[in-house]
Amino acid sequence: MLQRKGHSSKQDNLAVTAVALQDHILHDLQLRNLSIADPSKTKAQQRDTRSKSLKRNTKAVVDTGLKTTVQGPKVEDPEKEYVLDPKPPPLTLAQKLGLFEPPPLPLSSEEWEKVKQRSITQGDSTQPCPICKEEFELRPQACLQAFEKFANKKTCPLCRKNQYQTRVIHDGARLFKVKCATRIQASWRGHVVRKWYRDLRRTVPPTDAKLRRKFFEGKFTEISRRILCSYNTNIEELFSEIDHCLATNRSVLQQLEDRCGHELTDRDWEKIQIRALHRETHECPICLTPLPTSGDCRQDPVEMLCGQPSREMVLLSCSHVFHHTCLLALEEFSLGDSSPFHACPLCRSCYQKKILEC
């Protein structure tokens, strides 16, 4: 009788141990919601659980007729650090029986700070993600959750430790901001330097002979292009302007020929001489020496022996009187002028001349 009881107790202990191990394995593999014996029972349990949660979350609403103030969503600190699993998982039957070690207790704030400092010292945040091999960015990255879902268990992808604790930190995002700011500054500085160098290349000629020649050829081409662009290339307008200038020159030359081209008669010279007498000019406007009066036109024998020129007077058609020699010297001095007619040194009009007899 006693043997049967001892044998049955051993069988019960084996059965309890087997159930505990099976429960622990299912819990470790995150499969405790599955039913190995009856798959349909699992679906029914899921429906019952869903309906119970809906009933539990349902609340009665009473309309009092008063306006309720709608509170806006609370703005949380985007860089706030938090623990994903703050509560330890419940103990399995195998852990309660001592067949497996219980999960470690949640880390305190001081312990998390030490873990964070060790991670900063190792430079883990500066390295890419060990799972996706990409940099940590500002957007959410669920690589660890995807790895846990794919592996169907909670195991560290680096050290393979089970039942680890997870805390969300933002060191990678801060370093990514610094990297982005550094890249933006480097791009802007590069743009400024390249712009300065282009301006320098456009303004300062190089020292090399070939490059210097190419530089000035480019400058000459640019200046020529600007000059051509500034000109009015209307050929018809250019030809019409040339025709107008030619017509104006012809009219001026015709007027000049009308005034100076015809010969003056003796009567005209008498009138001009009368106007010259009314001027009462006693000095030559060129040499500023006295003009000879009547009876003084003959040259002195001493002057003839010394080679001095004669002091004959000449009357111009503009009624001005000069020494003949002075006017001849002035005309000889003015031979370089492009005008075919000489101009009076006083009134600047073309003239005809007549030598006065004393």
UniProtKB/TrEMBL annotation:
GO MF terms held by the record: zinc ion binding
Residue stretches making up the RING-type domain: 284-348
Alphabetic keyword roster: Metal-binding, Zinc, Zinc-finger
Domain of life: Eukaryota
One Pfam family hit: IQ
Matching Gene3D superfamilies: 1.20.5.190, Zinc/RING finger domain, C3HC4 (zinc finger)
Chain residue ranges for the region called Disordered: 37-58
PANTHER family cross-referenced by the UniProt entry: RING FINGER PROTEIN 32 (PTHR14991:SF0)
Name of this protein: RING finger protein 32 isoform X3
